[in-house]
Structure formats: C-alpha cells, structure tokens
Amino acid sequence: MTSVPQANDRAGGVTLRSSRHAPYMIAFLLFACAAGATFYFDHSMSGGMLMPGNWTMSMMWMPMGSEFTAAAIFTLMWLAMMVAMMLPSTMPMLLLYRRAAALRGEDHLAWAMFAAGSGYFFVWTLFGVVAYSIGVVITRGAMHWDSFSRVLPLAGGLALCTAGIYQLTPWKSACLKHCRDPLTLITGHLHSGRFGALRLGIRHGAFCAACCWGLMLIQLVLGVMNLTVMVAVAVVIAIEKLFPRGEWLARAVGLSAIAAGVVITALSVRAL
C-alpha cells in the first residue's frame, strides 16, 4: 500500500538532487565549450609578423576580410575567452543569486540565473569591443608608420606600469571587496523577473570590469591569445576573488607589473 508514495518520494528526491546539480553541470559544459573554442582560436591565430621596433604583431590584429567580419570574429573569440576565464570565479555569485531568488519564491530559476550571467558577460563583451577598437587603431598606425611602430614597445611598458599602479590603488581594493562579497550586491539590488536578474548581472559585471581591467590590460600587452598568459591571469583573478587574503596577491601582481613595465620601458628607450 505504501509502495506508490515511496516511489514518489524517491522520484522527488532524484528530481531535487538533479535540479541542484544542474547548474554545476551546465556551467561545466559551458566552460568546456568556451575553453575548447578559445584553444581553437589560439591555434588558428598562433602566427605573427615582426614589426619595426622588434615586436611581433599577432595574426589576430592583421586585416583579413571585411572589417565587419574581423570585428565579429574578434567579439566571438573574446566572449569565448571571457567565459573560460571568468566563469569559474563568477559561479559563486550566480549560485548565491539563484538561492536568494528561490527564497523569494521566484519561478524559472534557471532562466533567471542565465539572465544574470548574460548581463555579466555583456559587460565584458563591451570591454572587448572597446579593446578591439583601440587595437585596430594601433594596428593601422603601426602598419602605416614605422616610427609609430617603434614606440609601441615603450607604450607597452608604460601600460604595464599603469596596470600595476592601479592594482595598488583604493579603487582596486573597493571593487575587489565588492567582487569578494556579492551578497551585499544581491541583497541590495535583488529585483523580480529576468530583467531584474539581467540588471543585477550587468551591475556585478561593471564592478568586475572595474576591478580587473588592469589585469586584462596586462594580458593585452603580453598577448591576448597567449594561452599561458590567459591561464595565469584567470588564476590570479580567481585567487583574488575567492581565496582568503586575495588582496595580497593583487598587490604582488601590481608590484611585479610595475617592475616589468620599468624594465621594458628602459629597454625600449635605449632601442629608440
């Protein structure tokens, strides 16, 4: 007589467990696809051209096809790279948001979580569009004027110094504190519906971009599609956000970037 209720209880338990595990499985699949796409883009753009000033221009910046096609490919590549780099350190915020939305009685938690993640990566996509626009201007200048190309290593050294200095500022610390404590954002800006989730994701993405733009500048200088640099930056971001005393690593990276920038700047000045 009790077999049917017991079967229903077991089925309910399986459904509950699967619903709890679903975000992790989906995130893992998304991360795997993004990492695979990033590896493909890195392999297909591994070449380069030696430029005046003794630096190498990546194939990614070389004009190929129409401007729209080049911009679309870069945006797709950038989005895949951002998902691979940022998703591991962003999942705690998304899971915390999902839990808070469930406590509020929100329906369609999966879609709400997807909307929050979409808002977050939308901000990083805009960051990539700005980076691409600046990169195109620099590339065209380097292709047309040798003198401009020769000063780019110097500009790279100064960019490293700038990124390193930002790592030591109160602005970096404030943004990092926000990223390390997303509960404050969620409790203060939790709104109903998918549009509310999208707004929350955009807000969190803006703080994250403000926190990590120095690290992304370092990656752009050292090689935006260099897998070694990419993995190193992703690990630094994850440690800064998720581990105790992550701000110590932020300062250490800042000092290292300043030191490297000073060396590159000095060598570039000597080579002019």
Q: How would you explain this protein's 3D organization?
A:
By secondary structure, the protein is mainly α. It has one domain. It has helices at residues 3-44, 67-103, 109-144, 146-167, 170-180, 182-188, 193-223, 227-242, 246-271; strands at residues 48-51, 55-58. Strands 1-2 form a two-stranded antiparallel ribbon. The longest helix has 42 residues, at 3-44. The protein is globular and about 65 Å long. The N and C termini lie far apart (90 Å). Residues 4-18 have low confidence and may be disordered.
Topology (SSEs and partners):
Elements (H helix, E strand, L loop, with lengths): L2 H42 L3 E4 L3 E4 L8 H37 L5 H36 L1 H22 L2 H11 L1 H7 L4 H31 L3 H16 L3 H26 L1
Antiparallel strand pairs: 1-2
Helix pairs in contact: 1-2, 2-3, 2-6, 2-8, 3-4, 3-7, 4-7, 4-9, 5-7, 7-8, 8-9
Keywords, please?
272 residues; mainly alpha
Brief summary:
This protein is 84% helix and 3% strand. By secondary structure, it is mostly helical.
